[in-house]
Amino acid sequence: LVNLCLKPARVTTLLLAELPYRAETIGFGFEEFVADAIIALSYEEYRGLTRRVLEVRKCRWCPLPRMGYEFVIGDGGVRLYISYAGSLKGSFRLEERLSTGLRELDEMLGGGIPRGAVVLIAGPSGTGKTLLALLMAIAEARRGGRPLYVSFEESVEQIEYVAKNMGLEGGVKAVSLSPRLFTPGSLYYCAVKMLEDCKPTLVVVDGISALERQFGEEAVELVRSVTMWAKARGITYVLTSVSDVLEGETTGISTVADVVIALGFEREHGRLRRILTVMKARGIKHDTRLRELVIEEEIKLR
User: Fold this and answer.
1) pLDDT in tens, 40-74
2) What is residue 46's three-state secondary structure?
3) All domains of the chain, ordered by start, with CATH?
4) Nearest partner of 205 among 279, 282, 150, 286, judged by Cα
5) What distance in Å separates the CA atoms of residue 146 and residue 148, rounded to the nearest whole number?
6) Paired strand residues for 240
7) Rounded to whole angstroms, what are the CA distances from 59 to 5, 16, 26, 37, 62?
8) d(C-alpha 272, C-alpha 263), whole Å
9) Cβ neighbours around 295 below 10 Å, total
10) pLDDT given for residue 5 in this prediction
11) Taking the model in full, what pTM does it have?
């Protein structure tokens, strides 16, 4: 039927066949020899969750840059999780700077964060990463922007309580997600849909280390894909990580970032001081001195 009738008539034909779980033979076994292309759909267990996989097993006369893709079935139909790594678009804008909410840090960055940049705030627990990220989000709200604050470590109620306790309330939409409920592809779909719906001008993702614990090496590719999607649309992206980069601890996510702000502790006269420096700022003349981060009634650097 296919070779004698449909192909001569130049009719595109879709054949649907059952592929039982763990079976190798498609349908009756002859379909794969007749077809010019074979797309196999399956599912697999991923850390206790179900992950759907689309596999391109055959495609005559076409190069196949990649064989398997995770896919998600949602409100918009079927979406493939395809990395942005092969198609980088967008750039930060040096001519438009955003205040971090901390005057001294703006000065260290030569006038603030470039619009559309990816910013990594890295340091051990307790060094002030969440506070600094909240400052940036609230500064964006106060200048009329639409900040979105996503936490993988804390509840919305706790984020709002911390902001209120520090006198940093105002205009920030907060969302809390548990990475344990997602596969990399489903979290990518969730993140992109959230960005499409909320249309933020600045996004804070607090707790990237939770993604690294959950997804391992796949976390870097996931973060890269989401941030590149955002950068192509001019969205400023702020990430926090518990990596102690001041002490030489490495994180693959630092390669994604345009700006890296490092936090740490320094012992002095029997007490710990919080310290901050700008370790990286692409295309920007910046101050690399170690400064003390003082968190009192007024948050400042000295």
Assistant:
1) 898 899 989 999 999 988 888 888 777 789 999 98
2) strand
3) 2-80 (3.40.50.300), 93-301 (3.40.50.300)
4) 150
5) 7
6) 121, 206
7) 21, 16, 16, 4, 6
8) 13
9) 13
10) 76
11) 0.87
